[in-house]
Design brief:
The complex is a heterodimer of chains A (317) and B (286). Chain A is α/β, with parallel strands linked by helices and 317 residues long. Chain A contains 12 helices and 14 strands. The model of chain A has no long low-confidence stretch (mean pLDDT 96). Chain B has one domain: Rossmann fold. In chain B, α1 packs antiparallel against α9. Chain B is globular. The model of chain B has no long low-confidence stretch (mean pLDDT 96). The chains are: A alpha/beta (317), B alpha/beta (286).
């Protein structure tokens, strides 16, 4: 069940996006890219499909509404943006123009969690809570950068809107041997097996969870890591299975501890009447986190690798 | 110049549209946005019966013009105009309007009513969708127009001007904005608390081909629709139609109390009498 992973290979998620969109765009005229003045990685798409590369300027509301209009005429628009502005400035357009009409718009956001380096204006800590609350919206959080390619291909035929979250997308750890994973919306992956506890993580935190698990392994603690890339719909069976098989669970995410994956898992377990032996949330508390690198901020707010190791140990004591 | 017979035909339809609006306003148990419906009635009548390519027998007709009702609270006006055009039965619409599971509600829902091009109701969102549709139509080499019908009040929304900027940048000659400039919002008159003038100049400054008309003069409305540039031209058009909120019912005209409301039986009779006075041909039939 566990999957090969290699911490040494780094790939830019943004480059994967750019290459994949260009590849699909040249073959499929339904694909549009809508950006609000970002998109260094989109040069090839812009050159190859100039009529379907729509830069609206710094106008996220317009990007979302315009994409809805494109989708109403049978197209598959991908909006590229920085998460806080894409999801919050255009929040109502996403909800009413896109989700209410159940349109196949894909929103790809970068800067997930506290990774932006820009301070609290640029941090993205509420996005999953917001996006998952919208009826019809699917929510995907990218850990392994190569995953984006498969998700974008899946997205060409998947019904309804989809929010795809990345961290910085510049130097991402390749987690899985390319070509070995069949990604499905609504599924999770056991990235590492173990039976003492499960760390549920998504996005960049999957890599951190694997690093923590590897440290714990050396101390004889066998931790399972579940990559919950599909936050909505979520893999309920995998959640239940992990709780039943490992008892203790830690939810680790670069998002507010309220409204994200920790809330999703809590809802699933409570509804099914399943009580884990121990439960610990790691993520952003109710603060505007301020300046610093993602790594520094995770340490400051208690959800870095050391804190993850500690959380598992404290559950098992 | 518009043909006199055609003007009269459209005026007669507009009279029927207003009569049916008042009927609904007198029978429906909830509020109807009657003021803005009456200001938009002549424009909407002319669009669906003269300006727009539309086909009640084939709502998927690829050649149809796309009509976006950005001022979604005038849905009931659109339902009535489309009923008279043959899209559905008026009585059937009235019977279910606003009721549980009805396709016809206060704001248009495309999921429930597939003959509509989009859902709307949150103001200021229609133009961006229209711009997306216009880009798609242009890229596919299609010859239809995208017509976005707006209220002047909603053009206080910044999102309108974001979309106007992109319409200009993309040189969308297939895009037509029609603004029902009734100079009245829900709680104040234009220029009283919110200054919108110089209104037409604003659209011109955003790169639109501006046509100013009297939105209750059927001949002028038809002339404006006749004067639209070809779809493969490179400039979007804005028809700024000066109108009167409540037009046709004297006690509703220019009256903030009639943004939305219900008509009692006595008021309904007064309203119909007032409407007949507006339409000499109808009064003559009595």
């Amino acid at each position: 069940m566990s999957v090969t992973f290699n911490f040494d290979v780094l790939t830019s998620g943004r480059t994967v996006i750019g290459d994949t969109l260009d590849e699909i765009g040249k073959k499929d005229e339904r694909l549009y890219v809508v950006t609000s003045d970002i998109g260094g990685a989109l040069k090839n798409f812009r050159a190859d499909c100039p009529n379907r590369y729509i830069d609206v300027g710094i106008a996220e509301q317009c990007a979302a509404g315009l994409a809805a209009g494109l989708a109403l005429d049978g197209n598959i628009p991908v909006i590229m943006g920085m998460i806080p502005f894409m999801t919050m400035r255009a929040c109502e357009q996403i909800r009413t123009a896109i989700c209410y009409q159940n349109l196949p718009v894909r929103l790809i956001g970068t800067g997930g969690g506290l990774t932006s380096g820009g301070g609290s204006t640029h941090n993205a800590m509420e996005d999953i809570a917001l996006m998952r609350s919208f009826v019809n919206m699917s929510v995907i959080s990218i850990g392994d950068p190569n995953m984006i390619r498969d998700i974008l291909y899946l997205g060409m035929d998947y019904p309804g809107p989809m929010f795809i979250r990345l961290a910085q997308g510049k130097e991402d750890h390749v987690i899985y041997e390319p070509g070995t994973i069949k990604y499905e919306i609504g599924k999770g992956i056991v990235a590492k097996d173990g039976d003492d506890a499960t760390i549920f993580a998504h996005g960049e935190m999957v890599y951190q969870a694997l690093e923590a698990a590897s440290k714990l392994e050396k101390e004889g603690i066998h931790v399972r890591v579940a990559d919950m890339y599909s936050i909505k719909p979520v893999d309920e069976q995998l959640i239940v299975k992990c709780v039943e098989e490992t008892g203790h669970i830690v939810v680790l995410e670069d998002h507010l501890m309220t409204g994200g994956l920790a809330s999703v898992i809590s809802e699933v377990l409570l509804e099914k009447g399943i009580q884990p032996k121990g439960f610990k949330k790691l993520g952003i508390p109710q603060v505007y986190a301020g300046f610093g690198s993602g790594e520094e901020l995770r340490a400051k707010y208690g959800y870095d690798e050391a804190a993850t190791v500690q959380a598992v140990k404290s559950l098992l004591q | 110049m518009a043909d006199k017979k055609e003007i009269e035909r459209l005026e007669d339809i507009a009279f029927e549209v207003r009569s049916k609006l008042l009927y609904l306003c007198g029978t429906y148990e909830g509020a109807v946005h009657i003021g803005g419906d009456l200001s938009a009635a002549d424009l909407m009548t002319a669009l669906w019966n003269y300006g727009l390519k539309n086909n009640p027998n084939n709502i998927q007709d690829p050649g149809r013009d796309r009509f976006i009702l950005s001022k979604g609270h005038s849905a009931v006006l659109m339902y009535i105009v489309m009923a008279l055009r043959g899209f559905w039965d008026f009585d059937q619409m009235v019977k279910t309007y606003g009721k549980l599971d009805s396709a016809y509600g206060m704001h248009p829902c495309r999921v429930q009513l597939p003959a509509l091009e989009c859902s709307s109701g949150s103001l200021g969102q229609g133009l961006a969708m229209a711009v997306g549709m216009a880009i798609s139509a242009r890229n596919k080499g299609e010859k239809h127009r995208i017509v976005c019908f707006m209220g002047d009040g909603e053009t206080a929304e910044g999102s309108v001007w974001e979309a106007a900027t992109v319409a200009n940048s993309q040189k969308l000659g297939n895009l037509v904005v029609v603004v029902d400039r009734n100079k009245q919002f829900m709680t104040s008159y234009s220029e009283e608390l919110i200054t919108l003038e110089p209104y037409s100049d604003k659209w011109a400054a955003f790169g639109f081909n501006v046509i100013q008309i009297d939105g209750h003069h059927m001949g002028q409305i038809m002339d404006a629709l006749d004067a639209l540039p070809t779809v493969d031209s490179h400039q979007p058009t804005a028809i700024i139609a000066n109108t009167l909120k409540g037009k046709g019912v004297v006690f509703m005209e220019h009256n903030l109390g009639w943004h939305a409301g219900r008509l009692s039986e006595a008021d309904y009779q007064k309203a119909i009498a007032s409407l007949r006075k507006h339409y000499p041909r109808e009064a003559g039939k009595e």
